[in-house]
Write a structure and sequence with these properties.
It is a single chain. The protein has one domain: TIM Barrel. The protein is built from 12 helices and 12 strands. The chain has an 8-stranded parallel barrel with strand order 1-2-4-5-6-7-11-12, surrounded by 6 helices. A two-stranded antiparallel ribbon has the order 8-9. α7 packs parallel to α8 and α11 packs parallel to α12. It starts with a helix and ends in a 16-residue tail after the last strand. The relative contact order is 0.09.
Length: 416
């Protein structure tokens, strides 16, 4: 009996030790108490304040860690341009066009013609009354985002007759001190002035807070005026540095509000002509160093043709990437393709170049050109340009029509 008692006692001790080890193992698993889980920016917080839906862990189940959401791929923009007035009257039709076709984005005017297109709270805009109620910005953005449409806000920067007229100290002057004007387009603001730059940056920052997905600057350049016609001030830096510095500063300020892309529209001719680029301050190798996209405006009708007289005529035509085009408007594919090849060649030589290329393409008929030098732009001509973008190695594009009437037949149907 003594031996059997000793064995029984030993078995009891072993059982107690085993139970103790199990408790020790459970104590190594951190427990989660309701109310300690913090929501992140990328995790929807649907809980009542002070409560949580996280279950109390039990001995039978240990909660799985919440997976980190995958970062969304940047959208490959296929867009059309929209004016402020059209955004306020025909946005539903344009949203329908996006839903029916391969389009996924809209470029909507924020500021154009010297006025913000919605009621802005930027102090100087309010003080000078430089806004129009062309559309309800919150409503427009909500409609677009409900349909997963990417919204790019376009800001016409330095061609700003509103600000230049109401605040003449910000305007480009003639050498005699009077206001310089670009014909019917009116006055321009001086790109060198910090106050002018900050004004546009504040409008951009407000737009980002409102919910625009990207800021696109247009007329981010100097006017095409003769040096003898305008006066910018004494001992000013090179124009190309002024524009590049503005874009750098602007991108930095905008991204402090929210990390959204910043883009700039540029003359397509600057890829071919360094002289033209330096004249307006858009040097191809500099303009894309600090922003996310450049959009060369490759409208075949805007290149010189060989007519003896009439709009865009010089009697010779335009050479692009070594190819002479005597009637560029008749060669939409070739003009876009050669321009993009030339653009790629130049920027690829700049290792630190940041901007991707997303061209503007022509979706309008330039019947104002000399007879024999223009054609009607329909599905074939517009689609040819889009194909040229792809063949040149790029993936994004924007169609331009100032009346916002686009060629649906040039667009692929939406994927179901």
């Amino acid at each position: 009996m003594g031996k059997k008692l000793r064995i029984a006692a030993l078995l009891v001790i072993i059982a107690i030790l085993a139970t103790s080890c199990n408790f020790g193992a459970k104590s190594l698993v951190p427990s989660e108490t309701p109310g300690t889980t913090q929501p992140t920016d990328s995790t929807p917080d649907n809980n009542t304040p002070g409560e949580t839906n996280t279950p109390e862990p039990t001995p039978e189940s240990t909660p799985e860690p919440t997976p980190t959401p995958e970062a969304k791929e940047p959208i490959k923009v296929k867009a059309v341009y929209v004016t402020g007035p059209v955004a306020g009257t025909r946005i539903d039709k344009l949203i329908e066009l996006v839903e029916k076709t391969e389009l996924n984005s809209l470029v909507i005017d924020i500021k154009e013609g010297g006025y913000v297109n919605y009621e802005s709270n930027v102090p100087l805009v309010k003080e000078l009354g430089l806004y129009k109620k062309n559309y309800n910005v919150e409503e427009i953005l909500k409609k677009c985002h409900e349909k997963n449409i990417y919204v790019i806000g376009r800001i016409v920067v330095f061609r700003d007759d509103g600000l230049a007229t109401k605040k003449p100290e910000y305007a480009i002057k003639k050498p005699n001190g009077s206001l310089w004007k670009e014909g019917d387009h009116g006055a321009w603001t001086n790109p060198y002035l910090e106050g002018v730059q900050d004004y546009n940056i504040e409008i951009a920052k407000e737009a980002v807070r409102l919910g625009f997905d990207e800021i696109q600057y247009d007329y981010v350049r100097f006017p095409t005026a003769k040096a003898s016609e305008v006066y910018y001030g004494e001992n000013m830096p090179e124009k190309i540095n002024a524009i590049s510095d503005f874009l750098k500063k602007s991108a930095e300020e905008i991204k402090k509000v929210k990390d959204v892309p910043v883009s700039a529209d540029i003359f397509a001719i600057v890829a071919e002509s360094e002289r033209d680029g330096k004249t307006i301050g858009q040097h191809l190798e500099l303009v894309g160093l600090h922003i996310d996209y450049i959009s060369p405006m490759i409208y075949p009708s805007h290149y010189a043709n060989a007519a003896s007289k009439g709009p865009m005529s010089n009697g010779v035509g335009q050479k692009i990437n070594g190819v002479l085009f005597t009637a560029p408007d008749l060669k939409p594919y070739d003009v876009v393709y050669q321009t993009l090849l030339k653009t790629k060649e130049r920027i690829s030589a700049v290792p630190e170049y940041k901007a991707k290329v997303r061209p503007y393409l022509q979706d309008f008929t330039a019947s104002y050109l000399p007879t024999g030098y223009w054609q009607t732009y329909g599905p074939e001509q517009v689609r040819a340009q889009i194909q040229a973008v792809y063949d040149a190695g790029y993936e994004e594009w924007i169609l331009w029509n100032s009346k916002n009437i686009y060629t649906e037949g040039a667009l692929l149907p939406a994927e179901n």
